[in-house]
Amino acid sequence: MSDDFDEIESAIARLPRDYLDDVIRAQREAASAAPPPPSVIPEPEWPYPPRHPLGGVVRFRCPLGCPWYHDENPGAERPGRFMLPVGFTNEDVASAITLEAEARGNAMRLRVEDAIAAHFAADHANR
Length: 127
Ligand SMILES: [Zn+2]
Hints:
Helix content is 49%, strand content 6%. The chain has helices spanning 3-14, 17-32, 90-123, and strands spanning 58-61, 69-72. The chain has a two-stranded antiparallel sheet with strand order 1-2. It starts with a helix and ends with a helix. Zinc ion is lined by residues 62, 64, 66, 68, 119, 123-124.
């Protein structure tokens, strides 16, 4: 093996044992996690170029292929608010940001699912 390999091994040996245990535990949990539930949401499209005023808009077309679509504009959302404990740490801030992003993502997924369900009811009720 090369010097690079020796360098990597010695760097790993210098890491705190608890840190490595946490990383290994997190990797095992991620590998054994259940797959996400199936969704009716099709792959998104970005219909406008990045510098266009609507550049952040995400478009979801009808999964059945008709001309209908639903647009979401994440850039138009108000910034989220964070709840932090007294004497918060960097980890608390990172966790709060992650939770807020997950909440926004879940809210958008629900809006898109609701829009598709309403479209199905209105325009594809016979299927
Ligand atoms: Zn349709």
